[in-house]
Structure formats: structure tokens, C-alpha cells
Write a structure and sequence with these properties.
Strand 4, helix 8 and strand 5 form a beta-alpha-beta unit. This protein folds into three domains: about 80 residues, Non-ribosomal Peptide Synthetase Peptidyl Carrier Protein, Chain A (Orthogonal Bundle); about 170 residues, Peroxisomal Thiolase, Chain A, domain 1; about 140 residues, Peroxisomal Thiolase, Chain A, domain 1 (3-Layer(aba) Sandwich), CATH 3.40.47.10. The protein is of the alpha/beta class and about 425 residues long.
Length: about 425
Amino acid sequence: MVEQCLQTVLPPEALLPGEDEDWIKTGLLDSMAHVDVLLCIETRLASPGLFSRMSDGPPTTTRAAAQIVRNFRQSLEVETEASPSPNESGPDGRCGIAGWGFALGSARVASGKIEEEFDLPKGTLKDRAGIDSVCRASASECEISLATAAAQQALEVAGVSAQDLDWIVTTTETLLGFPSLAASLHSTLLATSACRVLDIGGACVGLLNCFVTANALFSDRAVSCIAIASADVHSRLLSPGKVPGEFGGLFGDGASAFVLRRTNEKDDPPLYSVRASIGSCSGTFSSVLRVRPDANAAIVLDFDGQALARAAVERIERIVSDLERSSGVKREAVSAFALHQPNPRLVATLLRRAKLRADRVPLVAKNCGNLGSSTCGVALSTALDVHARKPRGERGPIFAASVGPGLLWTGIVLT
């Protein structure tokens, strides 16, 4: 395992180091490559943060890393032997996706019209980015109304009411005021006073972070049902005069929502559940995209489109490979890939590089624009419409992957 993870960062022609050869002192790995190797091992073990808990610091030789892996696996065997049987421990923490839905801005604007608004050369968005149109919120729509519509769909599909919710977990990159999106959604859905709320950051990776967080919340046996939602209205922030059209013209408005509940043997068909999750932050690329308000509430944008495009494609490709290793599921066996889509041209590049089948990647950005935190959500909802109602033997896993400013990245496997 350690050698396989080393090979992911070494040039193809490079030889593996000796078991006691220090990776750092010999110059074999720099600090970022060392981190990538450690993250790869933690992913394979499904134990994030394993090496950060080492009192002597992270390993820098193959022998030391292998010994830590060996010790970790032995400790798991001891814990398994000491654990009570399922009947003795009560309900476990496994949850599944019982409902899903999304809502898009009701105004669909052609790319040519957007080019006129931003004073861009004709064909800039359609030819260079591959965007035919974007969805924009009408005057009567906002993040809260879109999230509410998506959540109501998800609740209906799940066959539960808002009064059944124990948590509402949300994410947004455009709703900047208070009450927050989670609190506002709690009010519009008429959830009970016992339902708790939580807002998650991460911008484009926010929804997948919501899944990871909600999955962890089910370790509390009192929790049985959680709604997660994402919503963004970019058109009122990233508008002509505030940001360049090459950036602002890519974005649309929309929301997505999912209902997770505790699974049981009577579920027919079985619910898709989070089997594995990975994520981290590649700070090397943090400068390629920075968006912030200035003192006068204008938008300050630092945007290196080419560098961001390269980093996004390379990182999503790496996420897919890491999800394969952490789950043992090969990409050829995956039914759908719910991916973040900065623009359709980058998606096409990613499909070629990662050798993904186009018919297994629900396209969102081509006709809706980049929906930010909801891009993965709309793609995942589309995938679930096709696969979630199939018997387990007739469907495959779903991979979801996204990157966000920072450069944050998250991936999950649903089975």
C-alpha cells in the first residue's frame, strides 16, 4: 500500500526508495508530495488524520509508514473483536438518501444575451466555455425560495414531513446575511423546535461537505432524519460592472436538497449510502481564485482562469483515482459521476483525461451555468432519478467530486 501511494507522486520512470531511505532528506519528495503520499495512505485506510495523531511526527520512510499501517490494522481487529453484536449495540449509524430534488432559476438566458450584457465578443461563452445558456433567478426568487422548493421535493420523494427532521444542514456561497440559510429554511419548512440547524462552508464543495457532516451526525442514535440543502443566486453578485464577463458570465442560479434517514433491512430498493469520503486543501493553488467584498460592498476578484482550469481538472481526476483506492470500486463499475462543472469545456477535458464515459456524467453547466455549491447536487439528483429506484444488483455506485476556492476538494462514494 505504501509503495503504491508513493508511485502516485513519483515520475513513471522513478525507482522506489529503499525501505529505510528517508523520502525528504534524499530529495525524493518535497513537502507537498509528502503530504499527498500521507493523504493517499489515510484514504486507503479510511482513517483521515491518522498521521497527524503520531507523537513522533509523520513517517518519512517506507518501513516506518508500513509499520504504522500494520499497527492501525491490528488495532481495528482488536476493536472489532471487542465490539458488541448489532443486536446489542442498537441502531447503527448507517444512513441513506431517501429523497432528493432541485430547483433552478426560472429565467433561462441565452449565452449570446449574456455576452451582450458583459460586452464580450460574440461566441466567447458558447465557443470557449461551451455554455449555451444559464438559469437565473427571477425578481421573486432568492436562495431561500429556491432551497425551499428543492427541499419540499426531497421531502415528498422521501415520504416524510419537515416535522420528522432532526437536523437541517445547508451551504451557500451567495447568501451573506443573517438569518442564515439553515435558519431561514427551518422557518419556511415549518420544522419543529427540536430540529437543529447547521451551516457549512466550502463554496463549490459545500454540498459534499454537508453529506460528510450529516453522515457523521447519524452516529448519534437519537438522529433519524436529516435534510441537507444548497442554494446560490450568483446573478445578483457577479453582475456586469462588478466582475469581468469571462468569470461572471459562467454562473447560474439554483438549489438542491436531499433527505437522509437511518436505513433498515426493509428498504426496497436499498438506499444509496455514503460508503467513503475524502477531502483536503491544496493551498498551493489558493491564489488562483479569490472573491471578496471591499469596504464599499463592491466585488474584489483575483482570477487566473488558466491556472484554475488546470488545477481543477487535475484535482478532480486525482479525486476519482483516490475514490477508487479508498472504496475498491473501479471507475468502469460506477453508474454515474456527479461532478463539479466550472464549464462544459473543462468537463470534456476531464472526461478525456480520466477516461470517463460521457453518458455517465449528468451535464449541468451547458444549459444552466456553473451553479456553485448546487452543481454537484443537481447532477446527483439527476443520477438518482435514474438509478436510486433500481434493485441493488442492477445499479452501480455513484462517485461525487468537487473542488472549490482554496483549493478545497471533496469526494464521496455512494453505494
